[in-house]
Records
---
Amino acid sequence: MNNRRGLFWKNNMNFGAIGGFALIVISIILYFFNVQESSLSSLLYYAVIISTIIIGTKYLKKIENGRISYARALGSGTLISLFASIIIAVYMFVFLKFIDTGAMEKMYDLMEMKMAEQGLPEEQLEMSLEMAKKFTTPLSIAIMTIFSYTLWGFIFSLITSAFIKKKTNGYDAAMAEIEKEINEENK
């Protein structure tokens, strides 16, 4: 049983790392083409997360003799998202804190422009910007990245798990587990 648990965690960490590094590569490419703020970039990030969840959960299903419950698939997808989000959060913290220190100023300018478009009075606009600057730091953005990517991964996993799961026959599943343990002991 411990081996099965170990495979579960190892699979999710490996695919989370793959997803996290894929998100970093995409982020770097979008940064060089200066299209980070476009809606296309968000779609690209979501596509990577969904793909990683599907491939990782299907691989887990494959190494567990083609059987996986809805709950296990949901847990796998959520953990893959969690590990990917930790990697991308570390990257974002390092990027915003040390690599492109002017990115925060660009973000504040964008906030100011959007608030001005809403027609906020000058005094209220400056107060809102001061509040935003206090709470929008590289560390807070990294922490929010972990929460948001994990939450989206959970939501995506709710859907993908319904398609990936395979209803197991209790007797067949127990026999397959026993057979697998016997095979591992004979190695």
Note: Residues 66 and 145 are 33 Å apart (CA to CA).
---
Amino acid sequence: MELQIEDKLVKVIKFTEGNICDRCLGRNFSKSVAGSGNLERGEYLRNKLEASNQNIPKTGSCYICNDLFESLDKMTNNVVEVLKDKQIHFSNFLVGSRVDSEILKREEQIHKTFDIDVENIKKEINREIGKELSLRLSKEVEFDNPNVVLMVDFKTGKVDIQINPIFIESRYRKLIRGIPQTKWPCNKCKGKGCEKCNYTGKMYAETVEELISEDAIKAAKGASAKFHGAGREDIDVKMLGKGRTFVLEIKEPKIRDIDLKKLVETVNKHAMGKVEISEMKFVAKNRRAVIKESSRDTYKIYKATVELENEVDNSLLDSLKSMKIINQRTPIRVSHRRADKIRTREIRQLEYTKVDSKLLELVIECEGGLYIKELISSDENRSQPSVAGMLKTGARCVQLDVLDVNI
């Protein structure tokens, strides 16, 4: 052993009056002394001191950890019992720990006094419990995206389990009007429940989110779910075609490997005639942000039925096809909850069919984020150009469907 290391070792032993456990001793020399672990390293150092008659026998609790490591097996058993009791299904995990702050202070004091730069005690605790659990449960330790985080509290002896969510991607088609995508809190009670909302706290009895998530929560034995859609359509608008992409986040799922094919069948049976979903797949957490961000970069196809105030000459109707770049100020109907700004969106293609003298059917392929109803009405000239402006008569969207959302 190098003299410098031996000198520091002797000083640590004297500082603690020999009352330092082999794990804490080994950990403080983990960067300078070889060994397969801190326990083996500490035993080696203790033997070296003994051989040179410099050892001070341990007669009391460890100065740093207060012999915390002697309760490692007991705490590991607690973790196994809690997992068994809660019947949580998972394939990987990560261990965290809480220890008395005085332990951390004493360890830091040793580090500062003797200029030691090594891992702290919590990392060793987490690693040792993790290794034992991995063997006993046949599960892997996962640092980046664990299924569950097992928090072992050495102050209380309790074990807390954080079950991380699962994320499932699919597409939905909304086959009827009058259903919002997500919960719309009652505008009178703000979601608390009142006579107006029949004490449900919401404006509408059903939502796309609820029709899908209810069965998913049940299948995964989850606590709740959050719906992340790639944009949204208005309540009175159908979502047709291939449907709109969404990611369903199921929180605290006790079952992670749910049968997605069966779940699709269950949801479609439950929501028959209202909402229909396509094939589901598990995705990573970041997918929810990706679909939200990409929704504005996509092109969407709408079919709008437009009622005109006056009859329009056919030559004017052809002018609608010339609309390309649309500047829209935040619509009046959403101005109470959206920032007042000008948005520029592109129309890729517009086709029209004259149903009768005052009724048109428009098929519009455009950039995501274009307000179609306002494109038609002009929204008091906040949308430029507009269908009403081009046709020089009042125009109103009386029915709207989303035919496709291309992501």
Note: The chain has twelve helices and 15 strands.
---
Amino acid sequence: MAYKPKVGATMAAPNVIPMADIMLVLLIIMMVVTPMLQKGVTVDMAHSRNWENMPAADRDDAVLIAVTRDGHLYMGNQEISGDQITDQVKDKIADKLDKTVFIRADASAKYGDVKKVVDDVRDAGVDNIGLLTLKDESAGPPPPPLGEQTTNPGTP
């Protein structure tokens, strides 16, 4: 009598429970790490049609001041008062070559609060101030400057 090995029962459906476990662990890790990667305080910035890309604002050593809708001021993640801005900006830019300060203001922030921050930053000796906004995707491309309007070659 010849030996004939027996084959076990075949599994028709893949076991997705280990994959679901791994996905849940990755989701938890992303939920924990994502807030740590965010620089500064979250504000609902205004949208702008005439925006300019400012990659220097994303650098780790960038000086960012946030103005919230209720008038609170933050430098990075630390809340500061209005009279501390000039001194703290002077300290932050003292040993830097690029003395640009970026301001992220909430779209609902009072104009006077943002103007006071700009004035305080200028009092610290900063000439380059970047006002950060979001790109307005719904408005389409901005119109060309008045001197560069194109004419249709087929029309007289």
Note: The chain has three helices and seven strands.
